[in-house]
Amino acid sequence: MTANDYLDCYQPELVVIPCGSRKLGRRARAADLYVGSYHRACRRAADALRPDRLLILSARYGLLDLDDVIDPYDTPHGAADAITARALLQQATVRDIVLLDPVVALGGARHAGLVRTIWPHARTPLAGTRGMGEQMARLAMLRKGHEQRLM
C-alpha cells in the first residue's frame, strides 16, 4: 500500500466495495447476493475497517445498502446498461453522503475510478496491485491488521 492509502490512522465514514459476477440465482439482500471469493474478501476487509457505513457498488443498480433486496443480473462495469458516474452522483446526493470523509474504495481500478468520480479523495488501498492474487493478498493483510488492533 502507498503511504497515501495507509488506513491504520482512522475509521472510515464510508467503505464502498465492488459487486461481483458470481451471484445467487434468485432475488436476495445485497449482502447475500454476491457469493464470489473476491467480493467476500472485500467485504471481510471492509468489516474489519469498522466503517460508519458500508455500501456495495453494483454495476447495474449503483450504490446498495446491505439490506437492499435486488434481482440477480449480468451487467459488468462499463457495459451499455451499467451504472454511470452521473447516476451514481445522483444516488449519493439523495443519500446525503457526497461530503463523507474519509472514504475507502476497496476494489480494482475500474471500481475505484468510479468511486473517485464522487469522492475524489477516496483512499484506494488496492491501487498499484498487479492482478487478482495481489489484491486478495492485500485485502487479507488489511483485514488481519485491523482485526489484530481490535484485540
Could you explain how this protein is built, in words?
- It is a single chain.
- Strand 3 (53-58) and strand 4 form a beta hairpin.
- Helix 2 (37-49) packs parallel to helix 5 (132-150) and helix 3 crosses helix 4.
- This protein has 5 helices and 6 strands; from the N terminus they run ββααβββαβαα.
- With 151 residues, it is α/β, with parallel strands linked by helices.
- It has helices spanning 30-33, 37-49, 85-94, 109-118, 132-150, and strands spanning 14-18, 28-29, 53-58, 62-64, 69-70, 103-105.
- The two termini are 23 Å apart.
- The strands form 2 sheets. The protein has a 4-stranded mixed sheet, with helices on both faces.
- The model is unreliable at 1-5 (pLDDT under 50).
- It is globular, with a radius of gyration of 14 Å.
